[in-house]
Amino acid sequence: MSFLSNHERPLAPPAMTLVCWLSAGRSLTEIGVDKFAGFRVQQLLSKLSYTAGDAGMPDPVDHDWLKQGSTSSADVRQSYENWVGSYDQDLSDWDYRAPLDAALLLKSHTSVTSKILDAGCGTGLVGTALRRVGFTGDITGIDLSPTSLEKAEERGVYRYLQPVDFQQLPLALSDDTYDALTCVGVLTYVLDSEAILKEFARLVRPGGITLVTQRNDLFQERAFDRTIQELVDERVYKDPVITDPKLYLPGNPDFGSDIQVIYAILTVA
Ligand SMILES: C[S@@+](CC[C@H](N)C(=O)[O-])C[C@H]1O[C@@H](n2cnc3c(N)ncnc32)[C@H](O)[C@@H]1O
Question: Does residue 249 contact residue 260 with C-beta atoms inside 8 Å?
Fold first, then answer.
């Protein structure tokens, strides 16, 4: 597969320049560079800008920020960069069940051969759950945290990985590319739900499925149901299925059974 000819992996302009310079008009695979090379270039650039731009952010490893959340991309990126080393273990200790629940829900709404975009893939728990329940198609992972993407890459379940910021739209991904999209545990950090849901609808083909989660407290606070209804009225989505709240992080004392998670399964109109 030629990396440069693949529209699933558009590069930010500086990375594109570097890759074009490196390949001198030939594909990266032709010159012996593996399929994640472009991702690593982007990752390096992203880390450089992160180091240069966000020094001095608060240390989030104590997790006090988790319940509160933040919609500052710089703060969120800092938090997840700092958390990567223990994220999987912490989430396992808290009995985090959303990835598997999301994967099973998605399986009941789309083919296991679906080409999937895992939006906010983090360290790759959702990609792993999708494989576990039997999805066989390509999965692309995108996220704000470059170090989380490195961890996701190690899992070997993603075909493509790319750093993005959901608060800087449009994303550098092509229209109607995916059969389905998962966005699990992410919308806490994105204030403009309408904009990101519209963007997801652009990336998923008509008739495809967008599955997103929202915490039940934020669902109310941000009037998420009204946002979905407006998008249905605008014919961006149709046939929404909204679940009852389900346990999210039952082993985390700040969440327990108080803060639960709601799944919205939306068909692209
Ligand atoms: C709770 S984690 C969920 C990760 C994964 N989906 C899971 O279920 O394990 C939230 C993820 O959202 C990502 N995220 C938060 N804000 C983002 C933004 N503005 N753009 C892209 N990713 C974002 C974080 O980097 C983090 O990996």
Answer: no
pLDDT per residue, tens digit, the chain (269 aa), is: 222 223 344 333 344 333 333 333 333 333 344 445 555 555 555 555 544 444 333 344 556 678 777 888 999 999 999 999 999 999 999 999 999 999 999 999 999 999 999 999 999 999 999 999 999 999 999 999 999 999 999 999 999 999 999 999 999 999 999 999 999 999 999 999 999 999 999 999 999 999 999 999 999 999 999 999 999 999 999 999 999 999 999 999 999 999 999 999 999 99
Instruction: Please state whether the peptide bond connecting residue 170 to the residue before it is cis, i.e. omega within 30 degrees of 0.
Output: yes
Ordered by where they begin, the domains of the chain are 1-52 (no CATH), 98-268 (3.40.50.150)
Tokens 């996701």 found at: 152
Q: Which residues of 97-128 are buried (b: 16+ CB within 10 A; e: fewer)?
A: bbbbbbbebbbebbeeebbbbbbbbbbbbbbb
Of the residues 47, 118, 189, 190, which should be mutated to test ligand 1's pocket, given the most ligand atoms within 8 Å of the CB?
A: 189
Spell out which residues line ligand 1, taking CB within 6 angstroms: 73, 76, 80, 98-99, 120-122, 125-126, 143-145, 148, 164-167, 184-186, 189-190
What is the dihedral angle through the alpha carbons of 35, 14, 4, 211, rounded to the nearest 10 degrees? 70
Cα-Cα-Cα-Cα torsion 231, 233, 236, 242, nearest 10 degrees, comes to: 60
State the distance from the centre of ligand 1 to the C-alpha of 90, rounded, in angstroms. Answer: 15
Rounded alpha-carbon distances, angstroms, from residue 228 to 27, 102, 106, 161, 221: 42, 18, 18, 28, 14
Q: What is the pTM assigned to this prediction?
A: 0.82
Q: Which two tokens stand for residue 85?
A: 């080393």
